[in-house]
């Protein structure tokens, strides 16, 4: 079981690291200071810590370190309650609204779960739990005064948070579309799986002990992997709407960066733009921006070599081949640019009467115009 929960903890921690890295490199100010980013990362990290602490190997190490049998139980249950609270706070910040209302709801959540965590610790301190149990503590101590109340209390606290989260997801999901709705649906699926696979299994095993029956396998074998799967699905629901647009943007940036290769290889030798830092962690969007700047600089340097005659002949030939007016224009500009680059590479003198023609790629913003010109250079020119 330790391997399962350690893998879940690692996956959650990785998600938090990726989410924390993504906004800091794309936003105008460090979004790690934004409530939504903070609450998302805190919730995911707390989930990872809960799984880390609930592993039998970790529980044994904590118990040995403190010298208190079963000390890992209130530690794990307290962290689970904090995780439940963080999920509610995350939904509050995600839903948004007036700042005063958001702050009030966050404080209410803390006001409920703060005393709950204190009560878990106090109940454990008052209980007699001298026998160390690493995998079946909930059922072994289900009838022990103090421990019984602590177990029920942490389960109820987690159930309340998951039910509230499910209700919010259903209601909010009716109002939104796109990735946000997909994320809410994933969170709802994870919440239902948590309720049925983890909590119902725990409740059933504990109640069975109260009635003199033994269904411990539900608590020890069924609940842990179901909790791990539920947490991962919920994490995907929280992270997907925030990371997928950035991931698509990075993929497009990488694609456009590569598609600019024919143009860069043709004109890059005349660019005087400063070279970007050679950092392997540089994002595709940043690399694309540097290449766009360098190519624009090169096009300005080659402008004195532009020959309108070459462009007009190429334009007539392209139109004669049946290309659209826009395709013919880009093809003609590519032919003129290729000729200008050859003259510049041969160190010929610029034309006596420089062309005043402005390339289509210089008139539009973004990389689309440059990509069109680069792709035209790859094709046979008229």
Automatic annotation (TrEMBL):
This is DUF6545 domain-containing protein. It comes from Streptomyces tuirus. The lineage of its organism: Bacteria, Bacillati, Actinomycetota, Actinomycetes, Kitasatosporales. The keyword Membrane applies. It holds the Pfam family DUF6545. Signal peptide: none annotated. Keywords: Membrane, Transmembrane, Transmembrane helix. The keyword Metal-binding does not apply. Residues 251-353 form the DUF6545 domain. The chain crosses the membrane at residues 6-23, 35-59, 71-93, 105-127, 151-172, 184-206, 226-249.
């Amino acid at each position: 079981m330790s391997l399962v929960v350690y893998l879940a903890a690692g996956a959650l921690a990785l998600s938090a690291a990726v989410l924390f890295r993504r906004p800091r490199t794309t936003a105008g100010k460090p979004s790690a200071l934004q409530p939504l980013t903070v609450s998302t990362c805190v919730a995911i990290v707390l989930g990872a810590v809960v799984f880390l602490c609930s592993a039998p190997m970790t529980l044994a190490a904590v118990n040995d370190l403190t010298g208190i049998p079963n000390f890992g139980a209130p530690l794990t249950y307290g962290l689970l309650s904090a995780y439940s609270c963080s999920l509610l706070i995350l939904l509050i910040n995600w839903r948004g609204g007036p700042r005063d209302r958001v702050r009030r709801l966050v404080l209410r959540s803390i006001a409920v779960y703060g005393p709950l965590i204190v009560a878990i610790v106090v109940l454990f301190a008052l209980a007699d739990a001298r026998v160390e149990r690493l995998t079946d503590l909930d059922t072994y101590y289900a009838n022990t005064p103090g421990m019984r109340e602590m177990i029920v209390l942490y389960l109820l606290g987690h159930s309340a948070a998951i039910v509230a989260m499910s209700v919010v997801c259903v209601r909010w999901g009716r109002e939104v579309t796109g990735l946000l709705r997909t994320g809410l649906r994933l969170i709802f699926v994870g919440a239902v799986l948590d309720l049925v696979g983890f909590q119902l299994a725990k409740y059933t095993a504990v109640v069975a002990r109260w009635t003199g029956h033994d269904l411990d396998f539900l608590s020890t074998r069924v609940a842990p992997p179901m909790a791990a799967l539920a947490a991962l699905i919920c994490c995907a629901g929280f992270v997907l709407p925030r990371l997928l647009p950035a991931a698509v943007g990075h993929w497009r940036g990488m694609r456009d960066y590569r598609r600019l290769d024919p143009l860069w290889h043709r004109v890059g030798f005349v660019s005087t733009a400063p070279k970007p830092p050679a950092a392997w962690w540089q994002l595709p969007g940043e690399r694309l921006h540097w290449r766009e700047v360098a190519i624009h600089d090169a096009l300005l340097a080659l402008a004195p070599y532009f020959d309108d005659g070459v462009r007009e002949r190429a334009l007539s030939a392209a139109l004669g081949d049946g290309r659209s007016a826009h395709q013919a224009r880009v093809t003609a500009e590519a032919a003129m640019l290729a000729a200008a680059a050859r003259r510049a590479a041969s160190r010929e003198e610029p034309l006596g009467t420089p062309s005043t023609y402005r390339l289509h790629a210089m008139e539009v913003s973004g990389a689309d115009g440059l990509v069109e010109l680069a792709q035209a250079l790859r094709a046979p020119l008229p």
